[in-house]
Design brief:
The chain is built from two helices and 16 strands. The protein is mainly beta. The longest helix has 7 residues, at about 155-160. The protein starts with about 30 loop residues before the first strand and ends with a strand.
Length: about 270
Amino acid sequence: MRSVILSAFLFLIPRLVTSQCFNQNFAFSEGEKINYEVYYNWGFIWLNAGYVEFNVKPGKYRNGPIYYLDAYGSSHKSYDWLFKVRDHYQCYLDKETLRPMYFSRENYEGGYEVKNKYYFNPEKNSAISFTENSNKPLTKDTISIPGCTFDLLSILYYCRNLDFSKLNVGDSIPIISIIDNEIFHLFIRYLGKEQIKNKDGVRYNCIKFSALLVEGTIFKGGEDLFAWVTDDLNRIPVLVEAKILIGSVKAYLKETNGVRNAAEARVE
């Protein structure tokens, strides 16, 4: 199982910026589709081992309009012998506040299976959860959650709407996440701006940040994830790097469709 992240890290951050909680959305819209190629480091070799796809779809939930977030990740079948991954995440976001209302997770990672469902009740700061994994049968719980809590998928779209304009390099933004019925106090750290070259040779002006991870079946835990997102209103991740238990991985942007704003970060 996952171990609790060392909360002491939060007290060692030199500058702690107040969380912006639930933002108004400027970064994405219905119809957005983003694809990535995932590379795994094995010794001195980088293998094209998998892919990830993110979709934003229209929907309704509790008689109101929502963003239906649908994400799927998989190792290529030719590399399943190394570490087989089949991950599917779904989330319903309130269109006005970006609050998560429902979350579903189905993971198969190297033989370990996890299934989670959360039904959020923001008025009562609670969530009804249904969880099971390879070591634990299905259980139902009602969990008290802070008023600014995200699941594993909504947190990505929340971060795309953060305002980095007033931050100094090294500043951090705290983020609360619910993972496997536990509440984790995480953060992302602003690392400035860089121009990077993507795998396809295209250059982008980017905002760079790191993120504190929770130890689990893939990640070691710690501030071991780095992301470069486009320095425009779309805030699309171009490159993501992370250390894992058996090496490291990189996800390179492959294709975008239906983005909300002009791609001003792309350098021709």
